[in-house]
Write a structure and sequence with these properties.
The protein is mostly helical. Helix 3 packs across helix 4, helix 5 runs antiparallel to helix 6 and helix 13 packs across helix 15. The chain contains 16 helices and 4 strands. It starts with a helix and ends with a helix. The radius of gyration is 23 Å and the shape is globular.
Length: about 425
């Protein structure tokens, strides 16, 4: 069984990596082939210069993604069948041979630290070369590393307790440890949804109440009409880090709040802002957030049940390059290897997400004016340099939102 798992893992890792590279190259080729002409549906609203900027920006991001995914695949092979995790484990065993839970936590944190170090140059290059070249980056290196430090500290503060709880349950809670851990994990995620808007998000951005009285009144009227109760309307200083614009609602239960990027408010007029918000409210009215949470609970339940079985199978460890089974190594292997086995399911997840976007668009068209949502989307595609001509197959794998041409054409049915 061990050799079978090794062969399956290596084969899937190679297939996944080749597929990523192939899809990326297809995407770049398709974009560049359509670079010289604006699609007819956008000819009156997006200039050729803006279209070409979006083509070049999307191509640059995709080339970087190809390089990053290749590096991640090499790292995963080195950590598993290459003996990297075994080396990390042995190093910590030499430091604290008798403290399984603490040692396990340190092994897991060390593995993720190595992964973060490998990914850091790509994140830096994305901000200070790609985004900088196309005029989107507003961060300084000091801000970049400050954000990195804050993200790391917040992740450690929030993640360490759940990690120790997982290892403690795996060690001493019997055969149904995975069920208890699923309950703990589910409660933890619900808690994060509740506290994120008020306590975590403000660590990275400034949130101020919406000051435009007329716009605020208009939005509150729409919220009341749609039956949405929020903690407030806030403007986020997205321009401090990027010139990209967006809007979203966040939180859970009574902590829900509506957030607008300041860059979005600068670009859209009141009608367009209302239409964008109506789209976000469409997600709320169709219970997309609740459905996603429920799906996450189902997937995590199945995953932990599978891990509960795998942790007792010696071939699971041996097949992935680990000669000394342990609870923490079972958890770590499962976390880093499972994405390889799930990659080919990405089109299903992307399709489900795009279905939600179509539903939210239709809701917006029925509670605002579809024309204004179209106008807003066109501005956002242009100002965010989002390509209008993605490769269809690449889009099917990766895009959580429908391609621009399809989305606009469906909204056009509601404009009369």
């Amino acid at each position: 069984m061990a050799s079978t798992l090794t062969i399956a893992f290596v084969a899937l890792l190679i297939i996944t990596t080749i597929t990523r590279i192939w899809l990326g190259r297809r995407h770049v080729g398709h974009i560049q082939a359509n670079r010289t002409q604006v699609p007819s549906a956008f000819a009156d609203s997006i200039s050729l210069d803006a279209h070409q900027k979006a083509a070049d920006y999307s191509s640059a991001k995709t080339r970087l993604m190809i390089a990053e995914s290749t590096a991640q695949a090499v790292l995963l092979a080195v950590l598993t069948i290459g003996g990297g995790l075994l080396w990390i484990d042995e190093a910590w065993r030499g430091v604290m041979p008798e403290h399984d839970i603490i040692r396990g936590a340190l092994v897991i944190l060390s593995a993720f630290l190595v992964s973060s170090v490998v990914e850091l140059p790509f994140d830096y290059y994305k901000s200070f070369v790609v985004d900088q070249k196309f005029g989107f980056n507003k961060m300084t290196p000091a801000m970049f590393f400050s954000d990195l430090l804050k993200h790391s500290l917040v992740g450690l503060v929030l993640g360490a307790p759940i990690l120790f709880a997982a290892l403690w349950l795996m060690q001493g809670a019997g055969d149904y440890w995975w069920l208890y851990l699923w309950v703990v994990w589910s409660v933890f995620n619900l808690l994060m949804l509740a506290i994120y808007p008020t306590f975590i998000a403000p660590l990275f951005n400034k949130f101020t109440p919406l000051a435009d009285a007329s716009l605020k009144q208009r939005i509150e009227t729409l919220l009341t009409k749609c039956g949405f109760k929020s903690q407030g309307l806030f403007v986020m200083d997205g321009s401090a880090r990027s010139s990209h614009g967006n809007a979203y609602f966040t939180g859970f239960g009574s902590s829900k709040r509506v957030v607008f990027f300041d860059t979005l408010l600068d670009r859209l007029d009141a009608n367009e802002i209302e239409a964008v918000l109506a789209h976000e409210l469409g997600h709320f009215k169709h219970h997309h957030v609740i459905k996603r949470i429920a799906l996450m609970f189902i997937v995590s339940f199945a995953g932990l049940a599978l891990l509960g079985w795998l942790k007792h199978q010696e071939w699971f460890y041996a097949g992935l390059g680990v000669t000394q089974p342990s609870d923490y190594m079972a958890l770590l292997l499962f976390l880093i290897v499972s994405p390889v086995f799930l990659f080919l399911l990405r089109p299903l997840m992307a399709s489900y997400s795009r279905k939600n976007e179509f539903e939210a668009d239709e809701y917006a068209a029925n509670h605002a004016e579809a024309k204004y949502l179209v106008d807003a989307l066109v501005k956002l595609y242009r100002d965010n340099a989002s390509t209008l001509t993605p490769d269809p197959l690449h889009s099917a794998f990766y895009d959580s939102h429908p391609p621009a041409s399809i989305r606009i054409s469906r909204l056009a049915k509601f404009t009369g």
